[in-house]
Design brief:
The protein is an alpha/beta fold. Helices cover 33% and strands 19% of the residues. The chain is built from 7 helices and 9 strands, in the order E-H-E-H-E-H-E-H-E-H-E-E-E-E-H-H. The strands form 2 sheets. The chain has a 7-stranded mixed beta sheet, covered by helices on one side. Strands 6-9 form a two-stranded antiparallel sheet. The protein starts with a strand and ends in an 8-residue tail after the last helix. The structure holds 5-O-phosphono-beta-D-ribofuranosylamine.
């Protein structure tokens, strides 16, 4: 079986990229390239250490440059990528481009809601649950159809830091499972919603 070739877009430290690189249990997926808008992204070092080819974009708003960087990827994963993907690239990878966001969309997403701001907004709302969402990428930030979510509790004594750490741990579980499930499915013509059964996970009290 030919593995699905995934390209990963990054802007930051790349712990989600690392979770994908470490997912050795998945012969269906090959991380083929890592693309960053920032030359100093720690994620690039992780890619190099894993022997994956890297590209730094000169202009992330240039669709031609981004398409060339993504090469012949079957699947594009935004893992902590903070730039808007140009519409031409979204169209080329419709239902083949996914993003991970550290809250339960459609709440707590959109322009300006990234990093600790997301967790501060969740805490200010009084919500009892948070957790990562993986969704298809469309022309707006954090907006395309939801593929899967992993709820985690918000504790009364949480700070943005403690909540971020709990959500990030769930991201590292969710993202490789979603990528694997999509690769296993191997059908890219329409959006899918994945439940616990598709993801092959057990429900835990405290993910
Ligand atoms: C994660 O919380 C992800 O959901 C968000 O940015 C963060 C990236 O972390 N989009 P890392 O670079 O994968 O460590």
């Amino acid at each position: 079986m030919t593995p699905v070739r995934a390209a990963v877009l990054v802007s930051g430290g790349g712990t989600n990229l690392q979770a994908l690189l470490d997912d050795a249990a998945s012969p269906q997926v090959a991380i083929a390239r890592v693309v960053s808008n920032r030359p100093d992204a720690g994620a690039l070092d992780r890619a190099r250490r894993a022997g994956v080819s890297t590209t730094v974009l000169r202009d992330p708003a240039d669709p031609t440059e981004l398409l060339a960087a993504l090469g012949g990827a079957d699947l594009v994963v935004l893992a902590g990528y903070l730039k808007l993907v140009p519409a031409g690239v979204v169209a080329r990878f419709r239902w083949r481009m996914i993003n991970i966001h550290p809250a339960l969309l459609p709440a707590f997403g959109g322009p300006g809601l990234y990093g600790h701001k997301v967790h501060e907004a969740v805490l200010a709302s009084g919500a009892a649950l948070s957790g990562p969402t993986v969704h298809y990428v469309d022309e707006q930030y954090d907006h395309g159809p939801i593929i899967a979510q992993w709820p985690v509790p918000v504790r009364p004594d949480d700070t943005a830091e403690t909540l971020a750490a709990r959500v990030l741990a769930a991201e590292h579980r969710l993202l490789p499972r979603v990528v694997r499930a999509l690769a296993r499915r191997g059908e890219w013509t329409k959006p899918v919603r994945l439940g616990i059964k598709n993801l092959d996970v057990e429900i835990e009290d405290e993910p």
